[in-house]
Specification:
With 324 residues, the protein is α/β, with parallel strands linked by helices. It has 8 helices and 19 strands. The longest helix has 20 residues. The structure holds NADP nicotinamide-adenine-dinucleotide phosphate (NAP).
Length: 324
C-alpha cells in the first residue's frame, strides 16, 4: 500500500514552509512539494527589510533558505520539483510530480502568484538592481534618490506610486492608456500628489544601465515619439498571475484565477486548504503569506483531529480504493 501523508504542502515559499513547520510540530507526516524554483518571489529580491525579526534586514534567498531548513529540521520531507497535476476528487487526495503519485489526507496549496513582466531584456538583467515588482519590499532601498518609475495603471501601480512618493523626489507613472484602471479613491489620491507625474498613452521600450538602472526609454503610442528618462529604479506593476493552472478543474477560482476561500482557509473541497498569494491579491507580503501558512496549517490540524478526514477516507474507500 502506498504511503499516505497526513499533509501535502504544494509550494515552497513563505506560506508553504510556514505551514509545514506548523504541521510537523503537530506531529503530522508532512511532504512539501517545493517547486523547481523553490523560495517564491523572495528569491527575486535582495535585501528584505520588512520581515520582522531581522533588525538589519536579510537577503531574500537567505530568508527562504532558513525557512526551508527550519521546515526540514522539524521533519518535513521535501521534493524540489513542480507538482504537475492533482486529483481532489479521490481520497486520499492525489498529487503528481511527473509520473510519481503522492497521497495526502490534507493538501495545503501555497503555490503563490508570479508578477507579470514587460518582457524587456534590461528588465531581467537588472532585476534586483533597480528593477522590482514590489515597491513595499524594495522601495526603501531607493530612499532619497531623485527619480523612480512605476509602470501600470491599476491599484497596485497607484499604491506603489503613493508609497514611493514618500521616499523619492519624483515618481513617474507610465501607463499605456489615458485612463486608469485603478479604483477612484486611489487614482484621485495619486493624481493629487504633487510628487507624482503621469506619462499617458506610453510604454517602456527599454531599461538601460550596466549594473544598475540608469534610464528608461518611453514610446508614446499616439505619436510614436521615443524619449529617455533618467531614473534609478523601475517598479513594474502590471498585475500578478496566480499559479493555479493545475487546480483549474479541481478548485473554485475567481475570475482572475485566485483560489476562493470559505470559512477561514478552506477551499470548496473539504480537506484542501490554501495559503498565501495564491488566494491573496490584497497584501502580497512575505509576512502575510507566512501568517496565512500558519492559519492554513492550524485549520488542517483541526480538520484531521475532528475525524472529518477519516469519514472522507471511509466514504471514498467504499467507492474506490486508492490505487497503489
Ligand atoms: P490590474 O488591475 O490587472 O492592473 C494592471 C495594470 O497594468 C493595468 O493598468 C494594465 O493596463 C497594465 N498592464 C497590463 N499589462 C501591461 C503591459 N504588458 N504593458 C503595460 N501595461 C500593462 O493589476 P493590479 O493593479 O496588480 O491589481 C490586481 C487586483 O488586486 C485588482 O483587482 C486590484 O483592484 C486589487 N488590488 C487592490 C488594492 C487595494 O484595494 N488597495 C491594491 C492592490 C491591488 P490596462 O489598464 O490598459 O489594462
Amino acid at each position: 500500500m502506498k504511503e499516505v501523508y497526513d499533509v501535502i504542502v504544494i509550494g515552497g515559499g513563505p506560506a508553504g514552509y510556514t505551514a509545514a513547520i506548523y504541521t510537523c510540530r503537530a506531529n503530522l507526516k508532512t511532504l512539501v512539494i517545493a517547486g523547481l524554483e523553490a523560495g517564491g518571489q523572495l528569491m527575486l529580491t535582495r535585501e528584505v527589510e520588512n520581515y520582522p525579526g531581522f533588525s538589519n534586514g536579510v537577503l531574500g534567498p537567505d530568508l527562504m533558505e532558513n525557512m526551508k531548513q527550519q521546515a526540514e529540521n522539524q521533519g518535513a520531507e521535501m521534493i524540489f520539483d513542480n507538482a504537475s497535476a492533482v486529483n481532489f476528487r479521490k481520497y486520499p487526495f492525489e498529487v503528481y510530480v511527473g509520473d510519481d503519485k503522492y497521497l495526502g489526507k490534507v493538501v495545503i496549496v501555497a503555490t503563490g502568484a508570479s508578477p507579470k513582466w514587460l518582457g524587456l531584456e534590461g528588465e531581467k538583467r537588472l532585476l534586483a538592481r533597480g528593477v522590482s515588482s514590489c515597491a513595499t519590499c524594495d522601495g526603501p532601498l531607493f530612499r532619497g534618490t531623485e527619480t523612480t518609475v512605476v509602470v501600470g495603471g491599476g491599484d497596485t501601480a497607484m499604491e506603489y506610486a503613493l508609497f514611493l512618493s514618500n521616499l523619492v523626489s519624483k515618481v513617474y507613472v507610465i501607463h499605456r492608456r489615458d485612463t486608469l484602471r485603478a479604483s477612484k479613491v486611489l487614482a484621485d489620491r495619486a493624481m493629487k500628489n504633487p510628487k507624482i507625474e503621469f506619462i499617458w498613452n506610453s510604454v517602456v521600450t527599454e531599461i538601460t544601465g550596466e549594473n544598475k538602472v540608469e534610464s528608461v526609454k518611453i514610446k508614446n503610442l499616439k505619436t510614436g515619439q521615443v524619449s529617455e528618462l533618467k531614473t534609478q529604479s523601475v517598479f513594474v506593476a502590471i498585475g500578478h498571475k496566480p499559479n493555479t493552472e493545475i487546480f483549474a478543474d479541481q478548485l473554485e477560482l475567481d475570475e482572475e484565477g485566485y483560489i476562493k476561500l470559505y470559512d477561514g482557509m478552506r477551499t470548496n473541497v473539504p480537506g484542501v486548504f490554501a495559503a498565501g498569494d495564491v488566494h491573496d491579491k490584497r497584501y502580497r507580503q512575505a509576512v502575510t503569506a507566512a501568517g496565512y501558512g500558519c492559519m492554513a496549517a492550524m485549520e488542517a490540524i483541526r480538520f484531521l483531529e475532528s475525524g472529518e478526514a477519516e469519514k472522507l477516507f471511509q466514504t471514498s474507500t467504499k467507492i474506490s480504493s486508492p490505487t497503489t
